[in-house]
Design a protein that fits this description.
Elements: E1 8-15, H1 22-31, E2 46-53, E3 56-63, H2 76-79, E4 84-90, H3 94-98, H4 100-110, E5 116-122, H5 134-143, E6 147-150, H6 159-173
Parallel strand pairs: 1-3, 1-4, 4-5, 5-6
Antiparallel strand pairs: 2-3
Guanosine-5'-diphosphate (GDP) is lined by residues 18-24, 38, 40, 122-123, 125-126, 152-154.
Catalytic activity: GTP + H2O = GDP + phosphate + H(+)
Family: Belongs to the small GTPase superfamily. Rab family.
Main location: membrane
């Protein structure tokens, strides 16, 4: 009997400006909660969640930046062996969208060229404060061959879908 309790194992890495909601997305997905207040720090390097897709067990190892993005100190080791990247911005923060090309340069420099990247516009529960229209983000994602999804970690909107879509795409490419 196999010792492995899964059919697939994928490493997923979250990147994007500080404050866009990366940690909240991970905690919503892995723990089913939205942490109150500021600073949703996870004191570990990664979280694990196993999902089932068409009868197959898919183990997701999800890496969060733990605040390192504030010091621009994310390096090759973080991107190394990532199967997928979740590049997150905040739809209520134009600045977080304008930084995306910088993140894409990092991806090009450090990630392997087979990596699957999904662009995520988070905080759609704050629709009245939206600064980045959906079409603009969709066009940008398409121009860079990225998938695109809008989420709310707070309202649990599209969070499950985000990780399941990514897992499906990774299986397809495996
Ligand atoms: P990170 O720096 O990218 O990890 O961002 P955090 O996950 O720490 O979230 C930063 C701030 O945004 C916190 O105050 C969160 O409560 C808030 N936040 C995160 N996701 C959402 C969301 O979907 N909706 C709303 N309204 N606030 C969010
Ligand atoms: Mg964080």
């Amino acid at each position: 009997m196999s010792m492995e309790d899964y059919d697939y194992l994928f490493k997923i890495v979250l990147i994007g400006n500080a404050g866009v909601g990366k940690t909240c997305l991970v905690r919503r997905f892995t723990q089913g909660l939205f942490p109150p207040g500021q600073g949703a720090t996870i004191g570990v390097d990664f979280m694990i969640k196993t999902v089932e897709i068409k009868g197959e067990k898919v183990k997701l190892q999800i890496w969060d930046t733990a605040g390192q993005e504030r010091f621009r100190s994310i390096t090759q080791s973080y991107y190394r062996s990532a199967n997928a990247l979740i590049l997150t911005y905040d739809i209520t923060c134009e600045d977080s969208f304008r930084c995306l090309p910088e993140w894409l340069r990092e991806i090009e420099q450090y990630a392997n060229n087979q990596v699957v990247t999904i662009l995520v516009g988070n905080k759609i529960d704050l629709a009245e404060k939206r600064e980045v229209v959906r079409q603009r983000a969709e066009d940008f994602a398409q121009s860079q061959s990225m998938l695109y999804l809008e989420t709310s970690a707070k309202e649990s909107d599209n969070v499950e879908k985000l990780f399941l879509d990514l897992a499906c795409e990774l299986i397809r490419e495996a």
